[in-house]
Each structure stands twice: as structure tokens, then as C-alpha cells.
């Protein structure tokens, strides 16, 4: 049985028991929720304890990996620029659209109260002005930022540290990068241990919430998945005008080339498994130069996941909606930009390990409670087919842009 299946079973069992107790005897339901709640929070704490060292190490390793790739030639540098531009555009679009979409759905006060008791204590966060945002983006004390889990200034320091490593002697740089890679690997092992008991943690969390809020929690999770799917489809559709305007493609030709790769992506839910179909489409159907496709597409599969920043921002906006919090422009922009950095730095993270390591920093940077992420982890794999569809579409779109620019250089 897969880990995802086990977690979904834990979610379903906890929800069923919580709803049954709430319908049968509300007072007993509250007592059972009080007993289950500490176990759920303990599991959440175990997940959160790995995030600061894991994210710090991943950003440093990711910066050096991207720098090495960019140093391999003009095509690689151009590809990385295209990746970053499209990732930023997707993240900012999600920061704009997600709050508007969630605002279309009514929010239950019972849900806010139940979440506050079961997984977090909501703190009202006033919108941050641009002056405060700029003052806080660079840490005056990096160690204090880590101790306070202030993820945005910590990631900024990690970026400075990572780029500084590229300027020191190669042998020393390799030692430090290898050290942080080992730290990341060790944290991933710890996260896997914690995720082994994820069905029990999710069971306790959803039981405590459903016993207090009834069906409102399940409805809220359904809204989260729906909005996530809509945004995945939206950013996927946005790639078509990018390919037409920036990549110089023709509509019919490009769509016809996309379809075979998209079919593989939706059926396998793996960008790597879609690689042969993407290479075939880029080569024989679109006629891109072999030296461009052979370099850009593997880089895209490794570094460029368009839907990842969209998901990180959407999850934070969902939590804000569930708690009735209004996010300011500075918070949304900060979350979107951090989501791009986290996405580029989280290359190679396996399965569910990536969820907390990537979503939690963005949620913290946007000032929302991180407790509900434990419940969202259980359902976030449901839109995976649409996420892979968007990533594969973006990979071919980025290849079209790089191919056009490379042809312009050759002419």
C-alpha cells in the first residue's frame, strides 16, 4: 500500500469517526477531540522541526546547482532566465487569483474555531507596508531568524551564502556544498520517519477538527482542491500565449505537438516519464535544434516546475481564508517570490517529503498558521495529474522560447 493511500485512509477514518461522534453526542465528541488533539500537534511539531535546516541546506545546494548549469553555456543560461521569469509570473498570478477565488466561497466560523483549537492558534496579522517588508527581508541576525523560523530573511541569507560559495576556491566550495547536501539528506530521512506515522497524525488532526466543525472541514478541503485545480489549469493555459508571442510558435502546430506529451503526463503523473514524448514533440513535430532540446528539456524537468510555486501560494491563501485573515499586497508578493526560490531549491525532493518542506516556509513568510498543512498534505496529491500536465506544457513552452532566441543568435 502506498504512503498516499495510507494517509488518505487515515484522513477518511478520522473524518468518519469525528462526524459520527458529532452527530451522536456533541459533548462526547469534544472530549474525544481534546484527547486526540495533542497527538496531532505532536506529529505536526515533528514535521516542523526539520524545515529550517532542510530549507537552508536546499537553497544553498540549489543555488550552486543552478550556477553550475548556467556556467555550461549560453543556451543553459538563457533557459534558466526563462524558467525564472515563467515561475515568477505563475507565482504572482496565483497570489492575485487565489484570494479572489477563495472569496467566492462562504467560510464557516465553526471551521475557524475548530482549526484554531486543533492545529494552531490563529494570530491576527495586519497587512504589512512596503517599508516594513523591505526592512524585514534581510536579517540583522541570521541565527535569530533561524531560531524564530523567519523563513523569508533566512532564505535571503541562504541565497547570499550560496552565491558567495560560487566565488571561493573550488575545492573548499565542494566541501561546503557536500556538507549541506548531507544535512538535507539527513533531514529527508527524519521526515520519512515522521511521515511513516502520518496516517495516525492525520487521523488525530481530522478527528479533532471534524468533531468540532462537522462537515465544514471536509467542505473546506474540497474547496482547496478545487481552487488548486482551477489555478493549475489557468497557468497551463497561460503557456499558450507565451509560446505564441515569446516563442514565435503557431497555434495549431504547437497544440498538436503538446497533446502527445500531455497525454503521457496526465496518465503517468511524472514529468520524467513524459521526457521521451517531449523530446519527440520538440524534435520531429516542432523542429527545434537537437542541441537545444537535449539540454533544455532535461534542465526543465529537473529545475522548472511551473505549478509548484502556484501550489505553495494557494495553500497559504487557503489557510488565510479558513482563518478569516486578510493578506496584504506585501505578504502576497513576498510569498510568491519565496515560492519561486523554494521551488528551484527543492530539486529532487521525494514525494510527500516535499510538501511540508516547501509549503511551510511560504506559509510562515505570509504570516498564516501552518498547522492546517498537516491536513492538506493528505489531499494535495489528488490534483497531481493536472500539476504534471501544467509542468510538461511549461517545459515545452520554455524550450520554444530558448529555441527561438538561439535561432536569432545564429542568423
Structure commentary:
This protein is mainly alpha-helical and 411 residues long. The protein is 80% helix and 0% strand. It has 19 helices and no strands. α3 crosses α17 (353-365) and α12 packs antiparallel against α13. The radius of gyration is 22 Å and the shape is globular. The model is unreliable at 121-127 (pLDDT under 50).
Largest sheet, in brief, is: none
Shape annotation: globular
Order of helices and strands: HHHHHHHHHHHHHHHHHHH
* Whole-number mean pLDDT: 87
Quickly give the structural class: mainly alpha
Ranges where pLDDT stays below 50 over 5 or more residues in a row are 121-127
The DSSP helix count reads 19
The span between the termini is: 55 Å
Strand content: under 5%
Helix proportion: over 70%
Radius of gyration equals 22 Å
Q: How many strand segments? A: 0
Query: Which oligomerization state do the chains in this entry correspond to?
Result: single chain
Amino acid at each position: 500500500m502506498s504512503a498516499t493511500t495510507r494517509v488518505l485512509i487515515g484522513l477518511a477514518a478520522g473524518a468518519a469517526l469525528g462526524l459520527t461522534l458529532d452527530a451522536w453526542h456533541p459533548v462526547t465528541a469534544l472530549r474525544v477531540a481534546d484527547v486526540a488533539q495533542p497527538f496531532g500537534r505532536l506529529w505536526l511539531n515533528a514535521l516542523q522541526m526539520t524545515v529550517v535546516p532542510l530549507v537552508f541546506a536546499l537553497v544553498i545546494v540549489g543555488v550552486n546547482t543552478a550556477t553550475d548549469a548556467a556556467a555550461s553555456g549560453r543556451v543553459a543560461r538563457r533557459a534558466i532566465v526563462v524558467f525564472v521569469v515563467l515561475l515568477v509570473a505563475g507565482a504572482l498570478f496565483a497570489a492575485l487569483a487565489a484570494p479572489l477565488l477563495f472569496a467566492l466561497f462562504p467560510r464557516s466560523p465553526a471551521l475557524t474555531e475548530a482549526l484554531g483549537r486543533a492545529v494552531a492558534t490563529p494570530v491576527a496579522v495586519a497587512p504589512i507596508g512596503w517599508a516594513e517588508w523591505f526592512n524585514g527581508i534581510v536579517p540583522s541576525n541570521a541565527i535569530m531568524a533561524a531560531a524564530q523560523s523567519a523563513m523569508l530573511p533566512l532564505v535571503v541569507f541562504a541565497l547570499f551564502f550560496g552565491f558567495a560559495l560560487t566565488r571561493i576556491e573550488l575545492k573548499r566550495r565542494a566541501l561546503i556544498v557536500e556538507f549541506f547536501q548531507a544535512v538535507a539528506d539527513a533531514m529527508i530521512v527524519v521526515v520519512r520517519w515522521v511521515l511513516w506515522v502520518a496516517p495516525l497524525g492525520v487521523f488525530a488532526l481530522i478527528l479533532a477538527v471534524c468533531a468540532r466543525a462537522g462537515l465544514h472541514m471536509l467542505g473546506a478541503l474540497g474547496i482547496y482542491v478545487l481552487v488548486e485545480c482551477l489555478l493549475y489549469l489557468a497557468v497551463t493555459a497561460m503557456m499558450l500565449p507565451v509560446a505564441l508571442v515569446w516563442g514565435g510558435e503557431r497555434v495549431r502546430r504547437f497544440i498538436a505537438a503538446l497533446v502527445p506529451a500531455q497525454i503521457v503526463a496526465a496518465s503517468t503523473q511524472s514529468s520524467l516519464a513524459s521526457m521521451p514524448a517531449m523530446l519527440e514533440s520538440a524534435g520531429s513535430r516542432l523542429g527545434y535544434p537537437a542541441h537545444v532540446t537535449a539540454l533544455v528539456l532535461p534542465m526543465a524537468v529537473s529545475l522548472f516546475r511551473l505549478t509548484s510555486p502556484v501550489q505553495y501560494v494557494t495553500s497559504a491563501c487557503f489557510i488565510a481564508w479558513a482563518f478569516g485573515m486578510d493578506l496584504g499586497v506585501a505578504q502576497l508578493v513576498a510569498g510568491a517570490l519565496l515560492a519561486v526560490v523554494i521551488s528551484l531549491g527543492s530539486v529532487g525532493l521525494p514525494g510527500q517529503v516535499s510538501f511540508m518542506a516547501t509549503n511551510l516556509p511560504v506559509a510562515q513568510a505570509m504570516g498564516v498558521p501552518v498547522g492546517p498543512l498537516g491536513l492538506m498534505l493528505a489531499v494535495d496529491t489528488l490534483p497531481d495529474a493536472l500539476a504534471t500536465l501544467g509542468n510538461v506544457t511549461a517545459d515545452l513552452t520554455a524550450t520554444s522560447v530558448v529555441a527561438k532566441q538561439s535561432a536569432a543568435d545564429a542568423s
